[in-house]
Amino acid sequence: MIEYRNLRVALLGAGSVGAQVAALLLEHRDELAARVGAGLELVGVAVRDVDAPRTTEIPRELLTTDAHSLILGADIVVELMGGIDPAREYLKLALTSGADVVTANKALLATHGPELFAIAEQVGAQLYYEAAVGGAIPIIRPLRDSLAGDRVDRILGIVNGTTNYILDRMDREGDTLEGALAVATELGYAEADPTADIEGYDAAQKAAILASLAFHTTVPVDAVHREGITAVTRDQVLAAQRNGFVVKLLAVCERLTDPDTGAEGVSARVHPALVPTSHPLAAVHGANNAVFVEAHAAGSLMFYGAGAGGLQTASAVMGDLVSAARRHVVGGPGVAESTHANVPILPISSVVTRYQITLQVFDRPGVLAQIATMFSDHGVSVEAVSQSVRTAEPGVQAGESSGATLVIGTHRATEASLAATVAALADSPVVERVESVLRVEGL
Ligand code: NAP
């Protein structure tokens, strides 16, 4: 029997995700009330244009352009507008007026999360954001709750569906980056302006959120090293395939040791990386997302599924909404965002990983030995070298090659040592050009 009063839910935004949330709230009203122990009453939906077409049917009387009044009358505010302004002001207003907040806004959390969490803590309100990373995939709650008693060492995430679709298409169809992007745009996976996805900004925001949660430390998005996929070529992807790897845009959040002080630090980075085909992340195809977590006691865990989509993302939003509503019914302080560890954030130069370097070299005696010396001079140990002789260019005498392609795999080395090695290689008279340098993760 339901005795608690109805909870007033204000929805900000009725686009791809918001319209689905509105429909689920209206369609499953009775079942949700039974689960929560109180009715969830959708009291209004703030939009920019009340007459704009919607993907689900929202009663006209619920639509409003007055978000401010809507927020002031709500127990729970669900923000699905996106962007920084006015979402930031609206959420501050919601929290200070005592409402709990559910949001999917990774851009806002990655840039103004600490401010919003501080207000929430001060007023005793809750801020839920499961949908901000990985769409439908439960990852925020597992990190915050299920793994709260464990120690997360590393997270490897495929957290951007658009770039995964593009790289997967290059791998499986042999398409170029431009060709795969055009298909992604046609299918609605990429926006008209794909910069946020292909330059890694979206993934960097998610990396900041994941690293902050996993390491109990505020990791601002500006501290996330970011490289997009625009420099990835079809040749690189196909060469990776021949060597037993796939190229993935990874968000890597990990604990590190500061090479100067020996103290513990953390780092977050986003870049294309070679992942061995035997790793579970290599099997994440299309626009799907996955987050691979390595924890001290739990070992390896992988969370996989749809990283976007209106209905899929609405599932995560609804889960948060039910949690927020239950807290109203049952009471209790809820979970404060934990940033107590305050571990130093280390720069990319401190990262230690493996690399694969592809070089075009001139065909001269002693080339291999000279190159090996450049690696060892900078403290980078070579694990494997494969060489293929390039076909002679027209005009080169029969039997004489114009050079060779060297693919060099290294053992673990710091980024700083690797960067110094690559600079030396680029300057060397035996190296025609450094074709690519890719980090190898998941080995
Ligand atoms: P969307 O389709 O662009 O919808 C945005 C909605 O917000 C629209 O209904 C728009 O109103 C409304 N809106 C925008 N500015 C407003 C303002 N100033 N005042 C009142 N209403 C305003 O966005 P979405 O794709 O649903 O994404 C919503 C949030 O979910 C974003 O933070 C996004 O990052 C996150 N997210 C989305 C997905 C996904 O698959 N789409 C996945 C994960 C997370 P009008 O309709 O009148 O223009």
Distance between the termini: 54 Å
Mean pLDDT: 95
Strand content: 25-35%
**Total number of β-strand segments?**
17
Shape: elongated
Bound molecules: NADP nicotinamide-adenine-dinucleotide phosphate
Please give a structural write-up.
By secondary structure, the protein is α/β, with parallel strands linked by helices. The chain has helices at residues 16-27, 29-36, 67-72, 87-96, 106-123, 140-146, 161-173, 177-186, 195-198, 201-215, 234-242, 310-330, 367-377, 415-427, and strands at 7-12, 40-46, 63-64, 76-79, 100-103, 127-128, 152-158, 225-226, 245-257, 264-276, 288-295, 299-306, 352-361, 382-389, 404-410, 413-414, 431-440. The mean pLDDT is 95. It is elongated and about 85 Å long. It folds into three domains: 7-135 and 311-330, 3-Layer(aba) Sandwich (Rossmann fold); 140-306, Dihydrodipicolinate Reductase, domain 2; 351-440, ACT domain (Alpha-Beta Plaits). Helix 1 (16-27) packs across helix 12 and helix 5 packs parallel to helix 10 (201-215). The strands form two sheets. Strands 7, 8, 9, 10, 11, 12, 13, 14, 15, 16 and 17 form an eleven-stranded mixed β-sheet that branches. A six-stranded parallel β-sheet has the order 3-2-1-4-5-6, with helices on both faces.
